[in-house]
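Review form for a predicted model. The reviewer records the input and the model, then writes brief findings.
Reviewer: anonymous (R2)
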Amino acid sequence: MQKWERFVVFDVETPNRLSDRISAIGIAVVQQGKVLERLETLVNPESYFEPMNIRITGITPEMVEDAPTFDVLWPQIRPLMESGLLVAHNAPFDMGVLYRCLRGYGFGWGPVVPYACTCQMARRCFSHLPNHRLDTLCRYLGIELNHHQAGSDSLACAQVLLRCLQGGMELERFVRSYDMVDGRTVKTDVRSGRL
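Model under review:
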C-alpha cells in the first residue's frame, strides 16, 4: 500500500549556470490519478541571464522584470509544496536549485524533504527506451510537451508519473529525501521515515 496519495510535481528553470536562482516554476498537483491543480509563473531571479539559458528556456531579463521575486513567491507556494510528495524529472537538479535558492534568500525548510524522480522511475518502467529524457518519454507516450517551459514540463512530468504508477511501479522504492541543511540527497527508510 502506498503511503503517498498526493504528489506535487514541479519544474524550475534557471537564468544561468549557477543554478541558485529560479526564472520560472511550474507545479502540477496530482491526486486520485488526476491533475487537480496547476500553477505556473515567471520569477524575477534578481540575477544575470546567460545566453545559453535564454536559448534553452526562451526566458529573457525583460520578461521577468515585473514577475515576483522568490522571496515574495515562496510564502505563497510553500503550503502547496508541502501538501504532498515532491516529484520532478531529474529531481536532484530541481531539488538542488530549490535548496540553493532557499538558502540564498535566507529561508529555512526541512530539515529533510522527501521526493521522487520520474527519470529514475521511467528507467525501470520503460527500460527499452534509448534514454529517459522528458522529451523522449513524451514522444514515446504521446504526451504533449513544450520543453523547458516550466508549466508544460511539470504537467508532462505529472503524466509520466501517472503512467508509471498505472504500470504498477512501486513508488516507495524511488522515494529519497533531500537534506535541506547540507544540500544533498540522502536515502530514507520510507517505512520508518528514518534517514
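Findings: The CA atoms of residues 43 and 67 lie 5 Å apart.
Further findings: Residues 6-186 form a domain with the Nucleotidyltransferase; domain 5 fold (CATH 3.30.420.10).
Recommendation: see findings above.
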